[in-house]
Amino acid sequence: MSRTPLRAAVVGTGHRAQTFTRGLAVRPAHRVAALCDPNPTRMAFHNALLTAGGAPPASMWPPDRFADMLRTEGIDEVVVTTVDAAHDAYIVPALEAGCRVVTEKPMTVDAERCARILGTVEATGNSLTVAFNYRFNPVHEKVRALLAEGAVGEILSVHFEWLLDTRHGADYFRRWHREKHNSGGLMVHKASHHFDLVNWWLADEPEEVFGYGRLGFYGPEAGERHGLRRDYERAHGAAPAADDPYALDLAANDTLRALYLDAERDDGYVRDRNVFGGPVSIEDDMAVLVRYRRGATMTYHLTAYSPWEGYRVMFNGSAGRLELEVEESRWQRPVTRVASNTGALHGDTAAEHAGGARLTLRPLWRPPVDVPLDDAGHEAHGGGDPRMLDALFGSAASGRPADPGEAGHPTATERDGALALAVGVAVNRCFETGRPVTVRELIPGL
């Protein structure tokens, strides 16, 4: 019988970890007992979040003592929010120690690490959950319900277009995400959101993948070609960055300053690099084709330099068509400052020029129907974050840990995480070889 409160460790204390430290601080059934990160300044920032939420501070541990931390602190559950390429380094020993593990998406960045995680889950029988918060967005749940009810009949094809604007999209080219060995590129780090959604919406699994990708907007060569590059390595203290709409002003935001600018003295990590500087090893424009086990196909296109942000998804079926369009930001001003008190450029708060969501059912031989949607807004990823936290850890009001039988919503397992990851990893392989990739050949055991 697990004790209450359950003792949690949060590994990786960057921006995204705030969702979990804040969320656990207000849930009496859980206590963040330990933080693990190479940077003591960032850990201190998260300890301040815990105490502000009424929770006691956590002990602080360096990564090379992670196994000692699990034993010494009596950890029951581990939340992994590190650089993506390091996820398996914590997931595997935490599972082997008998902990329940929740990892940020993506589960990892390549086939070898994925196989290592799947093998450890099988060997230990312990639980791994991947934090795909988009599953908990009420609009996405409505889409799933309509498809499951047969609103368009047999689903024959899907088209998914995703656009990152020049505020949010540019941010992946300022930080560690621009290095493919750390993030797997946008096909793994970000698009796994959508690959998981489509797998979940279709209740199907990807079989074969093909794609093309290029770096055509960001990076030094494209920046020179389009006349956008300015001569600085990082924005802070650089005169050419002062009025550059692609620069990020860390000093102007309390959270970004505390998490990154003030923390540079500990590890030298620079959060505000020039998006038109080098090196950049990820793509900014990607086209993908996926064939699913039951025969449906998906075309997917990701653009990371759009004037507006959002996504369009179309399901073509034997009885009609379902169309979803979400405008998260209709356009952006050329500003360099972040207003969110969490330091977020996207997801935590509504964009200044946020649009809305439209869901249209177009049955054969009948007029189209505008499907009513609850207005969840754009905050907290369309309402997905708080609902995901309730499913993972129980509601703050109940005072009890989550009971999977009562959650009322399926969370993503390690297999779900692997299937979403597999599409992105397969696309990356296609970028290198120019040939289609079969998912099960890439990751055996799926």
Helix and strand layout, with pairings?
Blueprint: E1 6-11, H1 18-25, E2 30-36, H2 40-52, E3 59-61, H3 66-73, E4 77-80, H4 87-96, E5 100-104, H5 111-124, E6 128-131, H6 138-148, E7 155-165, H7 168-171, H8 180-183, H9 186-189, H10 192-202, E8 206-214, H11 220-225, H12 254-261, H13 264-267, E9 285-292, E10 297-306, E11 309-317, E12 320-329, E13 357-363, E14 369-370, H14 379-382, H15 384-393, E15 412-413, H16 414-433, E16 437-438, H17 439-442
Name given to the CATH architecture of the largest domain: 2-Layer Sandwich
**Number of contiguous helices:** 17
Please compute the radius of gyration using only Cα atoms. 21 Å
Distance between the termini: 32 Å
Tell me about the largest β-sheet.
Answer: 9 strands, mixed
State the total count of DSSP E strands.
Answer: 16
Assign a percent range to the helix content: 25-40%
Quick one: CATH superfamily of the largest domain? Dihydrodipicolinate Reductase, domain 2
* Strand neighbour order, sheet with most strands: 14-13-12-11-7-10-9-8-16
**CATH class annotation of the largest domain:** Alpha Beta
